[in-house]
Amino acid sequence: xxxxxxxxxxxxxxxxxxxxxxxxxxxxxxxxxxxxxxxxxxxxxxxxxxxxxxxxxxxxxxxxxxxxxxxxxxxxxxxxxxxxxxxxxxxxxxxxxxxxxxxxxxxxxxxxxxxxxxxxxxxxxxxxxxxxxxxxxxxxxxx
Length: 143
Fold this sequence. Notes:
By secondary structure, the chain is mainly α. It has one domain. About 65% of the residues lie in helices and about 0% in strands.
């Protein structure tokens, strides 16, 4: 069975750019690489030749493989049978996606992860009543 490559369609370039913008908004090695593609310094075909991205991809693929392997045989056959139709459906969804809105949403979701989890208490305020701030210090931090 020969699978049709949806990137070789009229919508292919738009979907490829959408995917790179979404990936760039997520950060990490693949996100950094996607940013380089969008800036014109790399080509999408170099993605899996970039070692940090390859390592990230291999780790994710192992997890997906374990998930698929855990499924009953009949369910795996059904997934394989519907793979092309599923790919084409996802492709159409990406082609119609409001990418600016999706990128903004991804950045909003990532923002809390980038913020420090606690605000550091200044030494001057600790001097006033150190017992109130005991949980803001590590055991190795000097008083």
